[in-house]
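User: For my dataset I need records formatted as: sequence, then structure tokens, nothing else. Please produce one.
Assistant:
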Amino acid sequence: MFVLALLITLLSSVAFNRVAAAVEPLDTSGRHPLYYKSLPPGAVWQSPAAVTMQQGTFQPVAFSGPAGTKFSLPLAGSHSEEEPELMAGLMVGAVYRFRITGIPNAIGAELYPTVELIGRIYPPRGLETLYPIPINLSESDLQEALDGNLVTRVVYLEDPQTAIPLAQQRTESRPIDIPLDQDALATADSFGRPVAIVRLGSKSPPRNPALSSQFYFGFPAWAPIYKPEPMPETP
């Protein structure tokens, strides 16, 4: 049985998330003792350990937040259509900068966080889009970033031997605060296998177009995932 148990997340500029549990014990040989919270986006994939990971694989990721919030990804020099619950296939090993608009109590404000995929999950074949990696941001996360603070989330795959078997929607969160001097990546690693790092700060796009590629980490490819249209009711 594939259990979706989204414990979730963060605060105080550092935190972690829990996602779906696997059905077999996790391999602990690939953990990240050399990685620490202050590494810049993309640094994990510059390490020797990265050669053993499946870079270039597309992994479904689902973005969600408080009511009114919308998400979009870079597309053809602009951004994709904004969606309140955006889902897309992102490449494992890449860093993406996405846009958040419609932030509560912040008319006109925009945020440009990053998500770095450092692993993937393995749901039953054919159900990949039903079990994406959830990136669920709370109103307090967004406000912290607007106030100039850096919020770090680490999403991890639970160890099935210690996972809490509670069903939960991917848009739901149970915040867990950790001290500022505690490493979010190491903390998540002690609970399971980290698969994504989200960094939410107050950076904005550069005015000089020549710097856009650097800001968006080279515009890595991504694949849109569309929700099926509801079937019309028959009279």
